[in-house]
Amino acid sequence: MMKNRLAKVLYYTWLVIFVLLPILLVIVQSFFDVNGHFSLENYHTFFSSIYLKMTLNSFLYAFIITFICIVLAYPLAFGLSKLKHSQFWLVLFMIPSWINLLLKTYAFMGILGEHGIISQITQLLTGSSVDLLFTITGFIIVSVYIFLPFTIMPLVNGFLDINHNIIRAGYDLGASSLQVFWRLYLPLTKQALYSAIQIVFIPTLSIFMITRLIAGNRIITLGTAIQEHFLTTGNWGMGSTIGTILIIILCISIFLLNTNYKSKKKIKERDLIQGGRNA
Among 61-75, 167-181, 255-269, which is the least confidently predicted range? Predict the structure, then answer.
C-alpha cells in the first residue's frame, strides 16, 4: 500500500514539475509583449496575420508526411509480423532511430545536396544532376525516413496481437484476400493505426530542425516560427503564443482521434450484443 502511494506521489510530482509547470509558464508568457508588458497583442497578431497561413502549412505537411508513413508502414509491418523472429527484425528496423536526429539530418544534407549520392546517380542515368537540398521534396523524404520506424512499431505489435484463428476462419468461409484485409485485418489493427497516426502527426506539426536544415526558407511552419522568436528575434511572448495555440491544437487532435476510436468501438460492441440477442 505504501509503495503504491509513493509511486503515485512520485508520478504526480514528476507530472507537475516537468509537464504542467512548463505548459503553465508558456501560457503565462504568451500574455506579455516583447517589452514585458501584459497584453493580448500576441493573440491578435496570430489570428490576423501570416501565422494562420503557417498553421495551414503545418497541418498540410503533417498530413502528407503521416499519410506517406502509414502507406509505407502498413505493408512493411504486415510483412515483419509474418517473419519467424519478428521482434528481432523490428529491433533491427528501429536501430536508425537510435542515432541522434541532428546527425541524421546533417547526413541527409550531404546525400541530397548537389554533390550527394542521389545527384551522382541521376547524373549517371540521365546526364543531369538533381539537387534535392532546400526543396519541399527533400523535406518530405527526410521527414518520412525519420518517422517511419516509429510508425511501424505500433503496427507490428497490432498485427502480432491478432488471433490468427479469426483470419483462417475468414478464408475458410470463402473470403478473398481483399475481403480478409478489409473486413478483418484493418478493423483488428485500427487501434494500432490510430496510435501510429498520433505518433507521426503530432510531432510533425511542430518540427523545426528538419525544416530549417533540409527545406531552408521554402517551408515556414509553426515550429520554425517558435524557434525564430525564441532564438533570433527574442520575442518570447509571441513564441509562447504560438506554442500555446499549438498545444491546444495537439490536445484537440488527440481528443478527436481517441473519441472517434472509442465511439466506433462502442458501436461495434453494441452491434455484437444486438446480434447475440437476435440469435
Answer: 255-269
